[in-house]
Specification:
CATH architecture: Sandwich
Bound molecules: 2-oxoglutaric acid, fe (ii) ion
Structural class: alpha+beta
Domain Fe2OG dioxygenase: 101-199
GO molecular function: catalytic activity, acting on DNA; demethylase activity; dioxygenase activity; hydrolase activity; metal ion binding; oxidoreductase activity, acting on paired donors, with incorporation or reduction of molecular oxygen
CATH class: Mainly Beta
InterPro entries: AlkB-like, AlkB-like_sf, ALKBH3, Oxoglu/Fe-dep_dioxygenase_dom
Distance between the termini: 37 Å
Number of domains: 1
Cofactor: Fe(2+)
Largest sheet: 7 strands, antiparallel
Oligomer: single chain
Radius of gyration: 16 Å
Keywords: Dioxygenase, DNA damage, DNA repair, Iron, Magnesium, Metal-binding, Oxidoreductase
Number of strands: 15
Order of helices and strands: EEHEEEEEHEEEEEEHEE
Helix content: 10-25%
Strand content: 35-45%
Strand order of the largest sheet: 1-2-13-10-15-8-5
Length: 206
């Protein structure tokens, strides 16, 4: 199913490292997408290693994409699940609009303001040296925080609206880290989709 994107009012941020479209999807499309993804994706809470200890990840995830793609994330190897109709339609619309060849998506479900994602750059080797990543946000508005690589201090934040689209442009992952901090007051869930192009799919050894 194709989704129509309104890319008429881009906002350029971080000297061109990010472009934000506050209302790329209409509210009704965004509502519909949230409801179908929330119900249909096989949301899983992965365990991750933090300082050598196994802990549950503070969010739920699902990986979908073209067949035969595998990807390492937080020290684990994932193989993508097949596309769902709504995800493949959105990926196709994004590829058409931006002239990209994104072939997979990491879906994150933040159940409420207690769920989060720590500081990182999406710099895994599978993405090549300078990837473009397209992020779609649905549901509760949450802050997306940024800081320069090598600095502790947060440089800024951007509230990602329901139906918004954020392009992390070339240059972003090499210079900036991002995170999704906890927000005590938020009781509603949020879904984020980061569409990526996996260039070097890892060969799994037995
Ligand atoms: O939830 C977000 O907006 C960010 C997600 C993210 O950074 C990622 O999936 O790598
Ligand atoms: Fe990320």
């Amino acid at each position: 199913m194709p989704w129509s994107l309104d890319l008429s009012e881009p906002q350029t941020l971080l000297d061109g490292a990010m472009t934000y479209y506050a209302q790329a999807l209409s509210f009704s499309c965004a509502d519909q997408l949230f409801t179908s993804l929330n119900g249909e994706l096989p949301w899983t809470q992965e365990s991750i290693m933090i300082y050598g200890r196994e802990t549950l990840s503070p969010r739920l995830q699902a990986w979908h994409g073209d067949e035969g793609i595998s990807y390492r994330y937080s020290g684990k190897t994932f193989t993508t699940l097949p596309w769902t109709p709504s995800l493949v339609g959105l990926c196709h619309s994004i590829n058409q609009a931006f002239g990209l060849k994104l072939n997979s998506v990491l879906a994150n479900l933040y159940r409420d303001g207690q769920d989060s994602m720590g500081w990182h750059a999406d710099d895994e080797m599978e993405l090549g040296s300078d990837p473009i990543i397209v992020s779609v946000s649905l549901g509760a508005e949450r802050d997306f925080a940024v800081r320069r690589i090598g600095e502790q201090r947060q440089a800024g934040k951007l509230a990602l609206a329901h139906g918004s689209l954020l392009v992390m442009e070339a240059g972003m992952q090499n210079r900036w880290q991002h995170s999704l901090p906890k927000r005590q007051g938020i009781k509603q869930p949020r879904i984020n989709l980061t569409f990526r192009e996996i260039i070097h799919s890892r060969i799994s050894l037995p």
